Amino acid sequence: MEDINQQLHEAARRGKIKSIKKLLKKGADINQTDQDGNTPLHMAVQYGQENVIEYLINYGADVEKATPDGQTPLHIAAALERLQATKVILSHGAEVNKEKDDGWTALHGAAQNVNKEKDDGVTALHSAAYNGHIDVTKYLISQGAEVNKGMDDGWTALHSAAHNSHIDVTKYLISQGAEVNKGKDDAEVNKGKDDGWTALHSAAKSGHLNVTKYLISHGAEVNKDDKYGSTAVHSAVQEGHFGVTKYLLTQGINVNIGDRNGYTPLHIAAMNGDLDIVKVLLEEGALVDVQDAHGQTPMHLFLKKINGILDHRDDEALTAIYLATQNGYTQVVESLVSYGASLNIQSHDGKTCLHEAIILSDHTSRKEQTKARHQQISEDFSQHELSPDKTLVLYLLEHGAKLDIKDGQGKLPVHYANNEVIRQIIFSR
């Protein structure tokens, strides 16, 4: 009978009602489980075969038959928001409060006794809101679900809807008692988790602009902070959500408000190296000299971030400043040095910026060999008297380029100095 029972499972999954009838007449076991513990009814519910569901139940399928983890057909119907299947199963006497092994009941998806909790305090309404099931949300509230009931960590249905950008659910929850100010009994836009985290924090952190706008339009406090001192704009900036950040800046937020560590939104954007957000914060009056709890300004943090980027090597172990030197881009080199780029990082063949600058100077000097031989060299090597390539060598030496680093051939920078001016610059150090 094993084969015929397997065929019954497959027919139920595919909604083949005629095949099901034939198999049952041949003696297939309507409540036989497969290797995962699913009966044909489980399969029909899982794949939304509503005509099969009713037929199997009428033929004698056990609506309370559970999988090894305690999942009944009703659990599946509720979790998948199969409302018609849920109604059919309930109409045939399924136990609505029956729990799975983890304490989850069908009520958490779409049933009655709407405030029954899982072990972590999750109710059916939390589940519906989190998954954006607007019809289930409406049904649960109509049956008395507590809109403001929190999980063990204080997370409400409104947090769940805002976090996942379910705007319809968000709107409906507010229309059903999600008041804009904190109240004793009703759900509120500004109600926080146990750590003070609000629905606006959730929407901002997740980058959901439409939900953010709606919450604020219904009175969400834009400067409300959690127990760590973070506001919604801190959350948006931390995650790099430019659109939400820009919108919050138009809604009266305190752009220079610091969290418990003294971090303003600008500190956070600087740490992240997010230039677009840094720019918009500065345009809205963010202060660059505000110190955090460690005495660091946003500029300090930005430079720390930039340094890591500046010294990043490509596949040939070349840094940005190395390439700029190699091409004689003096102004670029000067700019990179001002931001803290290292001059002494070696390339794949062991050369440093100074090696490359001297090589470049030598190539240039060959073109001007006659002129170079007669050039008057002053003792201070005034930059006004030097060609750009020689000025670059002098600049590197004045800003920490080392003369004692050997390349892969064992050569020091001076070994590449075939020009008299360059040699005198080096020997004068």
TrEMBL record:
<feature type="repeat" description="ANK">
    <location>
        <begin position="316"/>
        <end position="348"/>
    </location>
</feature>
<keyword id="KW-0677">Repeat</keyword>
<dbReference type="InterPro" id="IPR002110">
    <property type="entry name" value="Ankyrin_rpt"/>
</dbReference>
<dbReference type="Pfam" id="PF00023">
    <property type="entry name" value="Ank"/>
</dbReference>
<feature type="repeat" description="ANK">
    <location>
        <begin position="3"/>
        <end position="35"/>
    </location>
</feature>
<feature type="repeat" description="ANK">
    <location>
        <begin position="36"/>
        <end position="68"/>
    </location>
</feature>
<feature type="repeat" description="ANK">
    <location>
        <begin position="69"/>
        <end position="101"/>
    </location>
</feature>
<feature type="repeat" description="ANK">
    <location>
        <begin position="120"/>
        <end position="152"/>
    </location>
</feature>
<keyword id="KW-0040">ANK repeat</keyword>
<feature type="repeat" description="ANK">
    <location>
        <begin position="228"/>
        <end position="260"/>
    </location>
</feature>
<dbReference type="Pfam" id="PF12796">
    <property type="entry name" value="Ank_2"/>
</dbReference>
<feature type="repeat" description="ANK">
    <location>
        <begin position="261"/>
        <end position="293"/>
    </location>
</feature>
<protein>
    <submittedName>
        <fullName>Uncharacterized protein</fullName>
    </submittedName>
</protein>
<feature type="repeat" description="ANK">
    <location>
        <begin position="195"/>
        <end position="227"/>
    </location>
</feature>
<dbReference type="InterPro" id="IPR036770">
    <property type="entry name" value="Ankyrin_rpt-contain_sf"/>
</dbReference>
<feature type="repeat" description="ANK">
    <location>
        <begin position="153"/>
        <end position="185"/>
    </location>
</feature>
